[in-house]
Description:
Mean pLDDT: 84
Low-confidence stretches: 4-38, 387-401
Radius of gyration: 21 Å
Order of helices and strands: HHHHEHHEEHEHEEHEHEHHHHHEHEEHEE
Strand order of the largest sheet: 5-6-1-7-8
Amino acid sequence: MSRPEDADKTETKADKSGAGRAAESPGREAGSLGREEEAARRILHVDMDAFYASIEQRDFPGKYAGEPIAVGGDPPKGVVKAASYEARPYGVHSAQPAVEADRQCPGLIFVPPRMEVYQEESRRIREILHRYTDIIEPLSLDEAYLDVTEPKKGPPSGTLIARRIREEIYEETGLTASAGVGPSKFVAKVASDRDKPDGLTVIRPEEQLDFIAGLPVGDFHGIGPVTEEKMQEIGIESGADLQETSEKTLRRRFGKRGGHFKRLAIGEDDRPVQPDRESKSVGAERTFSGDVADPEEMLSRLEPIAERVAGRLGSAGPEGTPVRGRTVTLKLKSHDHDVSTRQTTLRRAVRSKEDLMRLAERLLSQPHPPEEPVRLLGLSVSSLTGRKEGGKQLELDFDQA
Length: 401
């Protein structure tokens, strides 16, 4: 399968971040790296472009190719799970009420999700990634970290490997992926979002501090709308501001998270890529830009979260196998950061979105609906079966890829 006519845009835009220069001198990538670069890790973040919507456009080109589509339920009660790039200029995005998306985008086409198809495509893509490294940390069906410091094949060049992975994904699935390359997980993930869709951004070790300095604080891992607003109140709006603010000040204002933000700002992110990690629980949560007070609206906002959790359960076991769980927990956080949870443990393990929504509705209403408006909602499933024992908790934020 040949690339689209604009395939050269990756090469052109990558030049702006140094990727083009790397491609022009593969010998330097392979064996003549400077001492600083030689010591640095090569981390990739590969992120599929509008994954669910792109699959629908690929499989049904006569109906959906080039059209604004939203994968999810129809108005008035449905919720958008994913939006095609044709719909995004109108403000259509994941987790949005379908009635609002329909109002904003004339001619928007709603497409029912096919989770089994998305899971199968995710497995095919993971097989491509494993050709280059076994150090792979999936974040969801459509994105993963890779450590290619010592790849299984090819030169030790994050740039060249990322380019080849993207080419193979397109050749074998007809889908496009964007990728970021950097010396850490944080830098690689932010870089992958710089040139979407179908883009590649490379940040070399010597470039990362300038790159981080230019980021808005909202791009930092762990900084949601509420924390971002508090930072802006004290004059912190960018990575450069974080670099200049003392860790003591950040810790005083934001607790232990302040130290984490400071380390990210000065390029200290040594978190390893964790391959095939087992999960004690699988969950998703979303922070809203404003308070949600109506229990019916809370339930509507939980639907895409339950969809994400169900999708993650479908591939959270060893080698992407499905798991189920017996304990379901609903998380609620108010605008002033008061957190409460409601939990139920079942005799029969569950995995489907329908089961999760049924349980979420029960937890939301018992012993009574939340008395205070919420700023964050989350669902997680634990007491997992169909997996090896042990592991770590996996919490996921809703992506906008």
